[in-house]
Amino acid sequence: MDAIETQVSKINSNILINTFATKNPDARQFRTSLWNLRQIFRSKGISKGSEDSMIKTTLSFGILKLISEQQLLNRTLPTTIFMWGDWREGQLDREINNTINDLLNQKNYSHLKDSLLIDKRLDNQACKKVINEFNKYSLYGSDFDFFGLIYESLANKDIKKDFGEFYTPRHIIRTMVKLLLNNETSPRPLSICDPACGTGGFLVESFLYLQRRYEMTNALSNETRIQLKNNIFHGYDTNGKVAIPFARTNMLMADDGGINIQVTEDSLIHLEEDKYDYVLTNVPYGSYTGEANIDNFSLTNSRRLELLFIEKIVKSLKRGGSGAVIVPDGLIESTSYSTYRKKLLRLIELYAVISLPPFMFEPYTTEKTYILFFKKNMPNQTGKFQKSPVWHFIIDNDGFKKGKKRYPINENDLPLLEESFLTGSQEGKYGFINFSDINDKTFYSFCSEYYMRLKKPIEISIEQFQKIVEELEGKTNYE
Q1: How high does pLDDT run on average in the chain?
Q2: Are 46 and 57 in contact (CB under 8 A)?
Q3: Does residue 225 fall inside a structural domain?
Q4: Are 207 and 344 in the same domain?
Q5: Which of 238, 348, 399, 442 could anchor a disulfide with 374, C-beta 3.0 to 4.6 Å?
């Protein structure tokens, strides 16, 4: 298949799926197909007001095709279960639903119970048209932001808002993963967590990145693959009907079963302390309505979810463990959170801050966000401020058009970010800021724009100042 690169490992004879950023399907073409699907749905009465069913049906066809492509490479399901190419023309609608029922009876796919749903209004002819549209693509091992593109194209405003709560663009996730895990070149016991995993993007890309890195150093043995699949990655989310099934599906398509992706009533209660080597996440924000005891938090007594989440993430890391976390701008620069940031800086070493553009999460939200890279202090450093400088980078363009229509453009700061990370400087763009500049006078702000693009005061002489005053007084009439 075009979207899959395979090779034989030098260590063993297993076929390896080489999927990390190796293929870049045409997202525009896929959007066109989604528009075509919308017309098919409309012809069967699935239109305005039925967006949720339209999305679930599209996702179901996509998931079925992904599973079928995976099974072509490594058949693990009984041969009695019909896959994508086995359905007989003339009874497609019935046989597709039979496949769904058969899959849900398999242990590895039972978590898809609330995800595999085909609208009953699709008859045999409509199913044929949908299948033909999906046949244009090889999805397994591809670089499609599958879930994001579907919700972006088919969802109404309210559904987009809900989806935006657990969605982070894949190209941003990949960059974060590369920058955080860059030193992981050889297999070792690791634990990586996303405590608000949504559809599992951070976990999927971390899995694929480590697999690729180990493969490049000829260290991807059978034992290492088992460790990657079963022991390293952990994800939690409160949305058990949408987020968790999709997260497990995403991990399954990356060749991992998603065994440690779980529903939690509240990560602020259940996230274990001193457990993880790395945490990657996009923290939820807003008012916290859960049952965690706020008195147990040391950085704040506020019920702001993002503030509580950051503290919980720090506690969940092992000593010396690292985090890469997307946070809203209020946490970064609000003067009312200055005491919070000051306390936080006694628990961590903040080594990099990346400013994301406000259109990054369009069409779901225009919230201005930042990425914090930090390490949890060792015991002898806890309570002390770091002395090392903080590296800042401002992303002005991320390779996609600003605004709600996020189509690809040439302007892209991400390659420069990856190339220059933690090195060098460019005025107004990136560079190191002395930690001493983060102080009471700056309200312990982490804002990259403040430090990198702060306008310098205009210097004038006393004579110039007096002349300005005289001109102002001459223009004032008090009579």
Answers
A1: 85
A2: yes
A3: yes
A4: yes
A5: 348
- Cα–Cα distance measured from residue 199 to residue 243, given in angstroms and rounded to the nearest whole number: 5
Residue 349: strand, helix, or coil: strand
360: in domain: yes
Measured CA to CA, the distance from residue 385 to residue 343 in angstroms comes to: 9
Same domain, 222 and 120: no
What are the structure tokens assigned to 15, written together?
């076929």
Among 268, 259, 267, CA closest to 236: 267
What sign has the CA pseudo-torsion 219, 224, 225, 227?
Answer: negative
**Same domain assignment for residues 111 and 187:** no
166, 198 Cβ separation under 8 angstroms:
yes
Position 27 pLDDT exceeds 80: no
Percent of the chain with pLDDT over 90: 56
Residue where one domain finishes, among candidates 98, 130, 156: 156
Q: Which two tokens stand for residue 263?
A: 């529903």
For residue range 417-475, what is the model confidence (pLDDT) as tens digits? 999 999 989 999 999 999 999 999 999 999 999 999 975 445 556 776 677 667 666 65
**Three-class SS state of 202:** helix
Asked if 346 contacts 383 with a C-beta cutoff of 8 angstroms, the reply is yes
Look at residues 66, 456, 420, 432 and name the one whose alpha carbon lies nearest to residue 255: 66
Q: Are 327 and 372 in contact (CB under 8 A)?
A: yes
CATH classification of the domain holding 354: 3.40.50.150
As given in the structure block, the two tokens for residue 428 are 């107004």
Q: Which amino acid is at 211?
A: Q
Domain end residue (candidates: 116, 132, 156): 156
Query: Are the C-beta atoms of 413 and 395 separated by less than 8 Å?
Result: yes
Q: Can you give the residue range of the structural domain that contains 102?
A: 6-156
| 301 plus 416 within the same structural domain | yes
Does residue 169 belong to any structural domain of this protein? yes
Q: Determine the Cα–Cα distance for residues 99 and 140; give it in Å rounded to an integer.
A: 18
Residue 247, pLDDT score? 84
Q: What distances in angstroms separate CA 437 from CA 173, 202, 234, 240, 447, one per listed residue?
A: 29, 32, 37, 44, 12
- H helices of 4-138, in order, are 27-43, 51-73, 92-104, 124-134
If asked whether residues 313 and 371 sit together in one domain, one would say: yes
In a domain, residue 1? The reply is: no
DSSP assignments along 100-123, one per residue = HHHHHTSGGGGGGTTT----TT--
Cα separation, 229 vs 224, in Å, equals 9
Position 179 pLDDT exceeds 90:
yes
Running DSSP on this structure, what letter comes out for residue 181? Answer: S
Same domain, 349 and 426: yes
Identify residue 240 by its one-letter amino acid code. Answer: G
324: part of which helix (H) or strand (E)?
A: strand 317-328
Instruction: Give the number of domains in the chain.
Output: 2
Q: Which helix (H) or strand (E) holds 353?
A: strand 348-355
Please give the pLDDT value at position 198.
Answer: 87
